[in-house]
Amino acid sequence: MNRLLALVMAVCLTAAKPATAQEIEVDLELVLLVDVSRSMTPRELEIQRRGYAEALRSNAVFEAVQSGLLQTVAITYVEWAGTQEVVIDWRVLQSRADLDAFAQILTTRFEPALRRTSISGALSFAAQLFETNSYKGLRQVIDVSGDGPNNQGPDVVQSRDAVLGKGIIINGLPLMTQEGMGSAWHLDNLDIYYRNCVIGGPGSFVIPVTHWDDFADAVQRKLVLEMVSRPPTEQVVPVQSAPRDPTDCRVGEKIWQDRRLDWYSP
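Above: the chain's sequence. Below: its structure in token form.
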């Protein structure tokens, strides 16, 4: 009798458990990783927010969303430096109203800059966001922008390879402007560094920004490429020659160490 009662109670408890929510299918799961490290000026931070908002409201991006098999993408917006902050959690974008609402949030507040530059930490953080959301995308993409090489946290190549091993694509938007403190940590040919040390996966690409006036257009182009189709090969537009080797994936840590030695030298 006791065994029968225990069995009945077990069945009742199992039935009472809530069903696991079914994942929502989308064409693309996209993490936007946006650099807000201390090297960025308040003006640059605002340009980035407004640039993303302008791109999201464009006809080209709306048409890109509509071009997908499911006409649905899921996006989250994360600002990063040495740490990361989710500014806008995962949202489904289907209509112009969805895109406008996402853009509106980006332009309502601007945060102060944070410290250091940990691309490796940002990539690992973004990869975890895919594991905990409620979406199932035909593709998973991390889109990372930044104005300098990795100089904090784990080795960037190891972090990148761990992300790629999960089937996630990484694209890059290197910010090759020189304003404020960013000039002290500047790396010529940052686009080459991103190509060799940061991006990866089928069709991954780099779109460098050399002038802030071009930022919104670069973001629009990047979003369209990610939403509509993947380029057949890795792309990068090289610029000027480099006094430091941009293919050295530890160059950011070396610059940081050199600066520390300068600060503490008598």
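Confidence is low (pLDDT under 50) at residues 1-20, 237-243, 259-266.
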